[in-house]
Structures are given as structure tokens and as C-alpha cells.
């Protein structure tokens, strides 16, 4: 796996761990440091969550801090809003992406708006963890990439890690944030491994900074979450075809780091946005549009998008046809109008 | 013997006859529903033998609040005609439930009003101009919720109920003595959020009181199209909490029942669902035309059961309403209305830049860009105005 | 007299004393809740004096279905181990409720299963390979819902309940003789959709039966953390429909209570909520580890109350289970399992282009473009494979 | 009001009517022609809806066909799903945009997916009418432009009229469609007037065709719903500054009419997308991105966007600062890099 930052790999004290472990540790450290932090959701207590992210926390911190709720997502988020009103910092788990939908009214009409409606008097410091995306052979309603809904809702932060270090760092920062954060956990990276320093893990501050995972000169792949490792792989593969690709991991969709993204695109002159979410009305349109608005005269080709198809998420046996993979990314890179340029390092068509 | 693949080791040959004493595991209902069931008749005090036990001081206090509340409704409605309020959902006829809801709470408690319940907020001590901020249109929530511990008026129906549960639960976890009272309409009880809130409250034994004002209608939809339940208070049984049915126009009864529910919540005995049976005398809002869906005759029946008049009768019967008292109450209500008029007639100070200030704790770069755009537009506007002013002066 | 601004014309001076016979307008609870309340003990037939009245033919039929259902659960679980099923939520221990739900329906009726209820679908006549399509992973709903009038298995909990209400309501409006039976778990009763569905059903008097299988757990969460209600059946009262509490492991009791509920629905007497008290003997799914949240001892208590064994005892007591009968039932279940194995061992025929075929009635131009892209990729893949095949042959 | 198509204005038999009247007529004609059509929602019966769009229908067709439901949006949509399963064609009214959110689980997990999950066996012919957008002095939760959520949900059609004729024609076509349609009604156009022919109103078939409301050579304004009249006004005003603007009314966001849009942009070489919905993650990003992908070499400037700010919808007294108006559109047109071109008709900067 090439998901760890290159800087982390060389540090002393680093060890391999899974993203699931890093997330669990982030919850544990947050609970330990701040008595206002409460974890709640379906099966997060005794069971430790269906993905075991909250494993052991109820035992360590008690059922009042780590609570198995009744099975009702609007109720979970709605009561968390009330708890946040009283000064707590609830961390809510939605069991799967599609099961967050019953809570959308609470999310859109209250969570996202409360600070604003009260002129800042009533901030809602709550984190909503949503395991999202596919690639794990899950049946319908278990594999949605629902980020388009969240980013179109002002008042929410939308954060998603792609590495083990970031899983810890971004979750800590999200829980510490005084604003509501949608924390999207790429399901299929739960068991991905990366090196990190469990002795001194740190929060990623501030939320909203993208990171260049790989530098390159030919074109920029703009991506996040589950698609970051795929893009890293694509970048490796591209080398054989003579393209030196830069990979930008957004880490947060809201706030959006225009600066890092545009600096990269201005350098490379070409960009492909890659995500698993459906293309139409997905984040890729926003990203492509804003990059084009800001970097038009640096662009040698239109910003292209590689995304999931505009279909309901496929059944397990067909999902591989849906997910953006290395080939589809390389195909898009090939369509970045290299021929009109000339002089590019082996630019194939 | 057929293998049933259970791995069961009980030898089947021992099982004979139809009357086996198989122990049925844990499935007896855990609670006797009887104490949860509401009485078949709404609880009343005024006009019944119970009235004799009611404390005069309390009744006089309630009376003052009722009269003031009635005056508030009249004044707010007038303000819509003067264009000072965009819209007003009146609680004329519902004053008893509104003011009782506020009066039974202690200072540290929380009130969770629905969009209609500005009167309850005002009765709790909120400046009425602030209470009407939403409906005036200069901002969403017109007040700081922490000042009087009044949650923002909730426009999306029933969505505030889980908030009340969460807040009460949080306070209880912290060991604080706080009760939350949440208000909702008959229509709102049909929403999923009502169900989820009551269920969480009962499971957590949170110190919450749910007050349903059954005023007969959800805009135009009468109760018969809303529910087939014996009463809305009967819904409590399904959550394992007591349900109480009260005459919502009887301020003394409302005060007594809500006080008891608050007391129980405070003592750790969990939540209560209270249904106040009342009637919305005015249209849904000033924008509504109630003649489309109900008869004047129906409205008149309820006029005979007016909450202010019920209390007046009681106090008159006790000989407590002398000229001086009446004048004082009237005076108080008029002064209150005058202050409200005055407050609403002053144009609110608006800063368009506020649009960007409170979306996040810290402005994102996108919002900074957009704020700069608006700033520039406003400056250009101001400049143009100044220029045209200078032009005219010349 | 204080003006209360109601425009009320009743002269106040006439109102004296505390005992006024003010007519309280329309607020008496409309129904007596007594007939809606479930009995305090779950209804049982087997092992009680009621068993004597049960029809032997029916009991034998139920027994056959139970044994087959048990075998189905064992086979499906085995298929997960062989990698032929991604995941299987077993109903071992719940067969009585599952098969009774299917058996009480007539051909034109509809079944609305939750994700766990493949057995009910199979008992209604659905090919088990099709029933397991979702869990096998070749498509979402593995069958045509109209063929056996079985709605798609619903993964999002309780969301299928309003569908059942709408369908039953539509059939009634059309004058068709159709009843819908909708299944949900104890956990699912906490969802807002449960509440809204039951309320709509009662208001519309739709011909629906709601069957809650209270199997003690929502994954790891026990009933005590799910509700504080006397029983789940008590929730019926709040909607104005009857609630029935039944021993969910007693197939004869389940059949009787559900039959009556279906009969009432069919006769226009409205919906019923039935709570079947049962127990999930296996883990939530094969992927779950139940030892994390419950003790073996608890599981063992329930093993003594096994639905197949209960029926066996009754039939044995009646002397109806001779060698031949047992062998026939066993044989039927084995053949059934063999067919299922065979069906599941055949690789499904997959066409990736199906991804684009059913999103809309007519493909949009966007989807046509995307389908063309996939087509090209698949063609290239096939070409590459052919080429490498040719390469190897050389 | 310049919302009527120029062709309609001259026809014989045309009369002025409001959009509300045209919508009411569309519902009435649909109810009369097809006994499967049922209208349901909060207050749609006796009251005729809070906007009076269903006025008189319950009386004419009976309460079984035009039904006041209990107050529960998920229940309304969920029961409508069941009714559609049985062969009816429910037309659901959501009272206001934000009150559709409680129904999002039903919408996303069932309405949008049912045909696909059942391999076409169980189509859901239902129409969901959503009064949307601001500009009417409504308080919070009554003015949302929620189209971003709908367009990101494959399986839904998303349609919105801008003229009286289209209100009738598109609603008829939506109800007749065998797929679920989100029919977004621009609240503030309810009382807008246009000429139409009430003797022979016709459905707009097929759904998914954009229309050029005004031809022009300088640049294309791509818009829909409540912003169409604003763009028409802006185009008139632009004439004074020497710009001849083309205005494309999308009429449906899904399906998206790439052909009409791209043909226009290829002709003009410049485009601005205008909508009231928030910009970030809104439809404009998708539109700008796909136009750029398809027309890159015809573009003289990046496709710009004029949208609502990325904030919760403002209170009544401040909404005018939020809504995209003529000035903001002209500002965007001015930023279409005219100077780099030269020779353009009076191109101001
Ligand atoms: C979730 C939601 N759906 C719809 C509405 C629109 N609406 C506003 S008031 C109202 C009727 C409310 O009736 P009820 O709950 O009885 O309260 P009342 O108005 O009688 O006080 C409706 C449908 C809303 N505000 N929120
Ligand atoms: C809306 C929704 N939320 C969460 C889930 C995840 N989930 C699947 S099964 C389950 C527990 C269901 O418990 P219960 O309703 O008692 O049914 P049982 O599994 O016992 O049959 C949960 C939480 C889901 N499928 N749908
Ligand atoms: Mg009401
Ligand atoms: Mg269960």
C-alpha cells in the first residue's frame, strides 16, 4: 500500500497499523482527554460497532460515554444535537452510508444551520462518522458514496482520510472542531495498513488543507478518500507510459483547499478529478469547475473526471465495473490532449 | 426422530401429551400498562369540585398571564396588518397551555417551543420583540437561546423534540438539575421525529415533558385525518411513559398536570406525555383562510370554553376580581402591548455581512471570497447612492 | 370586566360560582382503548389446553414447513461458508413466525419482508435461489415482485412498512380483495417509518397486518435498550389499532393470530399490530460474533422452547409422527436443500451492461455514453484475453 | 414578465394565466384523463394546498383521489411508493422544499432505486411536487433550493418549469412518465403571468429537452426555473452594454440536454451558469464542468457561475443580497475575458 505519507515512513517510532486501529485510537484519545466527548450510535457499545471502530470503548469509558442507542438515525442525530446544545461533543456513528439518510432532516435543517440561525450563540460541535463507499462486496444500501449531499449543505465540514495517519489526525481535529463535521470513513480502507507513530500521533490542524501525496510534472490527479490509493497506483503505472503524475489528496471537501489544488494544476497544466461517487452532480463537477475558473489560462486541456457511473451502486458481483480503477484513470490521462502540445515526456495518446 | 438441526439435546421421546410446562423465556410484558394510560376524560379543575383546592395566588397569577397572552396575540396579529410582521401563527384560545408551559419551569430548565409557541417563550421572560424576530424577518432566531434557556423556535415540525431529549439527557449525565419541556402540535405527533424522541426519552428515562397542544387542526387537516388513536395521550403507552389528558383551556388544570410531570422528571421518574385539548380560535396564520375547512359554529362552541373566561369565572366566583385588580391586569397587558408595538415599529439594524459571519466558527476561504464580493457590491451601491445624492444637491 | 379580546358575547356577569356546566367541546377520547390492548401474556396454543382444538392437518402442514425452514436456514448458512453467499441473516429459531406469515396469506395478497425474511418469501413459494439473490450478490432483488406478490426484501429497516400501507390502500381504493402483511424486527420499531406507517394505516383503515418479530436483539442491542414499552404490541394503542402479543415460537398460535388479523383486514376492519416474541438462535449474520453481547446460557434457555420441537411434541403427543411421516418430511426438506445447493452452485449469468438498463424507463444520453464506455472497456478486455489465449496457444 | 416563449405570445386563443393556474389545470387534466392518478399531501384536499395549486380538486374528484394525509413526509412518500407498486400514479406534494427532507430516505433508497433493484419489474411512476427557492419573504426552512440533492441521485428525473406554458406541459409529462420525477416549482413564479392556450394545452415531450429562450451571439446564459426570468432581464439590460446574450432554459436538470447547451456555447464561445441554489456543490459545477469537457476548444473564457452564496438561506430582510440578480449576472458576463479577444461588439470589461 502506498497510502502512507512518504515523510511518515522514515520517522522513528513508526509502526504499521490499520486505519481501523487509528480511528479507534483517535476516539479513545478524544474520550480520555475531553469529558465532553460522547460516542453514540447503533451497536457502538457492547459490540464495538459493526466495523469494530469503537471496540473496547464502552468498557473503558462506561455506557454513559459510549452508548448503544435505539435503532433510529434521526433520533440519534437529533438527541446528539440536544447534547451538543448542552455543551457536550457527541461523536455519532451512522452504521452505513445509506442509513444516514433518515437523519437528513436533522442534518440539513438543524445541524448545518444552528450556529447561523442563532448568530453564533449556539454552535454544535458534533462529529458524524459515516463509513462510506464500496469495494467491500456489500449489498445494496451499504455502499453509497453520499458526499454530494453533504458538500451541498453549507454549515457542515466534510472530511475524509486516505491514510492511517490522517485517519487519526483528521478524526481528532474533527472532534475538536467547534463546527459539525461529516467524517467520511472509506470502508474499504479500514483494513489498509500504513506506518504511523502511535507514541505521538497528532491532530491534523487546521482542517481544510489538502496534501500532495506524490509530486509530478505531467498532470494532477485530484482525489480523496478511497480513491487516493487508486490514484497512487495509477501514477506508478503512468510512469511506464511516460507521464509523471502529481496526486493531490483533498482530505477535506469542505473547506476546499483551492490554494494547494490550483498551485498544482498551474504547475502541471492538466488535471483529472477522481472519485467513486457518481459523476453527475458529484463533487467532481464542483472541483473541475472551480479549478477551471481559477486556472483557465494554465490549462492545456479541459479538467476531466473519472467517477462512478450515474447509477445506483451495483450488486457485489458487478461493482468492479463501476469503481474507478487504474485503467480508467490512465484512459482519462491519455485524453488530456497531449498531441496538441508536443515536447511532452513521451506523451502517448 | 426428525433432526431439527438445532443441536438440541432434549430427548424427544420424553415429550408426550399437549400440556408441557415449557418455560417461556423472558417475554412477559415488563410493565403493567394501567398506570401509563390516560384517564378517559380530560383533567379539569376550573368549573369542577377540584377548583376549591386551587390556590388563589396562583390563579391570579395565571389570570394575569392569560390576559397578557391574549393581548399579545391581538397585538402580534395587528402587527401583521401593519406590515411589521411577515406572518403570525396566533395562539388565541391556547393561552392557558402556552403560559402554563412557561410557568411550571424553573430558571435552569429549558423550553423547546415549536414555531407557534412564541407566547410560551414570552411568558418565560423573553423579550417579545426578540421572540418575534423570526417572523419579523431580520434574522432566524431572534434571541440567544442560552439567555432564557429557550431553544430556537422550530419550524420543521417535531424536529425539536429529540433536541429536548438530548439536552435533558446531557444535563442528567452531568448531574445537573434540569428539566426540558418540549411543545408540539397535534399534527406534529404524526412525524417520525415525535416517535423517535419519545422512545429515546423513555429508554434513557430522560427528564423531559412532552406537551402536545391538540388544537384540532394541522393547518386545515382535522384530527380525525391525523390519527385514529383513542387520544394523543394514549401514544405514551407505546413508549412506556405515562400519558395525561388535560383540558388545555383550563389554566389551573394545565398548571397542575404539567407541574406534576415536571416534578416527576426532576425526581428521576422519567418523561411524561401530556395532551392539552384546546382549540385554535384564529386561522392557522394571518395568511390562512380558515373558513375553507371549518364552520363558524364549531368555532363558536369553543368560544364558550375560552381559557380567559374560564379563569375569570372562577376568580369572579371567589370575589377576587375587583375593579382595581382588573384595571391593574388590563394596564399591565396594555403596557406590554405598547412596548411590543414600539419595539416592532423601530426598524431593525441590518448588516448584510452577517450572512457570512456565523456559518462556521471560522470563515472558510470560499466564504471570505463571497463576503468580499458582497462587500464590494454594497460599497459600489453606497457610492452610487452618495453620487446621486451629490448630484441632487448640486 | 376585562376585555379578553375574544369578541365573546357571553355576558360575564352571569358567570358565578365554581361549578359551571361549560360544555367541553369534542375532546372525549374517541375509542375505548381496552379492546386495543394486548393481553399481558403472549398467546400460546401448543402446550396449553387450546392445543386440543387445533386442526391436525394444519399442524402437520406447519410442521412440514418448520422442518423445511430449519433445513433452509442450515443450508443457507452452509452456503456462506462455501463462499456461495456473501452473508446470511439466519432465522433459525424464528421459523414459526416466518412460515406462518406466509401461510396465512391468499394468493392475491402481498408480503413485505425485511432483509431477514427470506424464509417467509420462500414459504410463500418463491424459488430460494431467487430469494437469496440479494445475498448472493448478482443483483439486488433476485425476483420479480409481481410473480408471487412479494415486495423486494428491504434492507433499510422499517422503510417497507409504509409501502405495505400504500399498496393495501391502493388495492382497497380499487375495490380489490388484497391484504398486505409487513414484517419488521424489534429494532425496526424504533424507526420513524414504523410510526408513520402504522399511523397512516389506522387513519386509512388500510387492510394491513404488521408483524413485529421481537427476537430480542437488533444486532447486539437488546430489547431493554430499544424500548421501555410494556411490550411492542402495546404500541398499537397509540395508533388506534389492536395489538396482539403471541408466542412467536408457537406456530399454531402464530397461525391463528395472524389469520385472525388478516381476516379482519380483509373484512375492512383495519390494521393489526402483532408482536411475535421469539429469539434469534444464531448470530445476527454469519459475519457477526454473538458471544460479544449475549451469554450461551440465555441461548440455551430458548433452545428449550424451540419452534420445531414444540410442534414435534404436540404431534408426537397426538401420535401423528410415525416413521413414514417423519421420513417424508425429512425427505422433502432434504430435496429442497439439494435443489437450493444445486441452484446456488451454478454460477449466475452476469451482464455488466445491466448496470445501465434499468435506471430509467428510457436510457438518458448520459447513461448511453457511460454504457458505451463500459462496452468498449469490456470489448477491449475480451480482445486482450483472446489475444493472450492465442498467444498461449502458439 | 418576459417568461412566455416568444412563439406562444402570438398564437391564437392564447390568454394570460398564472403559473399556479397552469399547474392546477395540469393536475386536473391528469386526474380527469387517468383514473390511476392520485394527488396526496398535507392540506392538498379541503384547503387546496397552501399555494392553492390543488384548489377545487378534492371537490371535483373526491377525497379518495385527492387526499389530505397525516403530517409525515416519509409516510406520504412511502405510502405513495406502495400505491405506485399497485399501479397507481401518485402525485405527491411536499409543502415546502425543506419539508421534503424527512422523506429523503424513502426518496434515495426506494423511489430512485426501485426500478433498478427489480431489473425493471417494478417501476415507480410517481411525481413529487416541491415548491422551491426563495424571493417570497419566507422564513427559514421555507426557501431552500434543494436541487443539488436530487440531481446527485440516479434514478430520479429532475424537472423545473420557468414559464406558464411549461408549467402545464412539463407537469403533464412528468405525471405521464413511468419514472419518478422531482417536479420543482419555483415558488416566486407561482403568480407570474404568461400567455398560453388554455383550449389546447399540451405536454412537453420528451422530458429532457432544453429550450433557447432568447438567441444571442456574445455569450450563453445557462439557467433554469426561477432564474430564467432574471436571465431574460439581464439579457435585455446587457444589450445596452453591447452584449447580445443567448439564454438557455434547461427545463430539466436530469436528463440533461447536453446537445442544446453545447450547441449554444459552441456558437457563442462563452457561458455563465446562473442559479439560485448555493454555488458549492450545486448544479452549476456540474454544468460548467460538462460544458467545459465538451466545448473546451470553443471557449474563450472559463464558464463562470452566478449562484446563491454558500450559506443557509437568509432571513427575509436580507434575501435580496443573496439572490442572483441582473447586476451580478452582468458582472459575470463582464468577466468573460472580452479584452483578450478584440473585435467584439463593444465588449466592456
Ligand atoms: C416537517 C414539516 N412539515 C410541514 C410543515 C408545514 N407546516 C407548518 S405548520 C403545519 C401544521 C402544524 O400542525 P400542528 O402540528 O397541529 O401545529 P399547529 O399549527 O396546530 O400549532 C404544517 C404542515 C412544517 N413546518 N414542517
Ligand atoms: C435504516 C437502517 N439502519 C440501520 C441498519 C443496519 N442494520 C441492519 S440489521 C440491524 C438490526 C435490526 O434489528 P431488528 O429490527 O431487531 O431485526 P433483526 O435483525 O433482529 O431481524 C441494523 C441496525 C439498516 N439496515 N437500516
Ligand atoms: Mg394543531
Ligand atoms: Mg431483532
UniProtKB/TrEMBL annotation, chains A, D:
Cofactor(s) listed: thiamine diphosphate
Record keyword Oxidoreductase present: yes
EC identifiers of the protein: 1.2.4.4
GO biological process, any: branched-chain amino acid catabolic process
Keyword Transmembrane (UniProt): no
Domain Transketolase-like pyrimidine-binding: 17-192
Keywords: Oxidoreductase, Pyruvate
Molecular function terms from GO: branched-chain 2-oxo acid dehydrogenase activity; magnesium ion binding
Pfam family, one: Transketolase_C
UniProt name for this protein: 3-methyl-2-oxobutanoate dehydrogenase (2-methylpropanoyl-transferring)
Source taxonomy: Bacteria, Bacillati, Actinomycetota, Actinomycetes, Kitasatosporales
TrEMBL record, chains B, C:
Obligatory cofactor(s): thiamine diphosphate
Segments of skewed composition (Low complexity): 385-394
Family matches, as Pfam families: E1_dh
Residue numbers spanned by region Disordered: 1-40, 371-394
Annotated keywords: Oxidoreductase, Pyruvate, Thiamine pyrophosphate
InterPro entries: Alpha-ketoacid_DH_E1_comp, DH_E1, PdhA/BkdA, THDP-binding
Name of this chain's protein: Pyruvate dehydrogenase E1 component alpha subunit
The species this protein was found in: Streptomyces indicus
